[in-house]
Amino acid sequence: MSPEQIQKNKEEFISIYKENITRPGSDKLLEWIEKTDFFTAPASTRYHNACEGGLCSHSISVYKTFMEKHFVEGEDDIESVTISTLLHDLCKAEFYTVSTRNVKNKNGQWEQVPYFSIEDKFPYGHGEKSVFLIERKMRLKLDEAMAIRWHMGEFESGGKAIGDAYYKYPLAVKVHLSDLESTYLKEKGTSEVNRR
To answer: What does residue 19 show for φ and ψ, rounded to 5 degrees?
Structure first.
């Protein structure tokens, strides 16, 4: 992803955030996010958006997918939707590091190339870590916490708790569906493995 696109995505994220999230503490949370690598971090090491700026791009994609496919006027709260989609993967801020590995180039020569690897300084899980990080600055509603905690669905262990959360909190189902579609349909082929 080009530096210009990374900056454009950052500006779009902040614009959506400020327009839709006015809850006490939201300004402090955004200040903290801007001090992390959230806007330049990848969304994964080798799957969807495994490139510089991929995390922010993915977060915007999940928000847009939710708004296009699942938002129901009068039923869904725009602030809750924005919080749950833009911040569902906040746990990935300060989570990746750039390492190097030896790879043969097209001429058959070995060369060192950069790649993203995981360096989890705070191993607190995935969805629950995002909830924890948000709650340090801004209170979440119960359905927002459930949506963020369970956005990975069957890809996280949770047994009966996932089904209970989905049954009780429609926002959790909609965030999970938006994350799935963004990851596996919209962002397919967006990895830039071996490039920083």
So the answer is: -70, -35
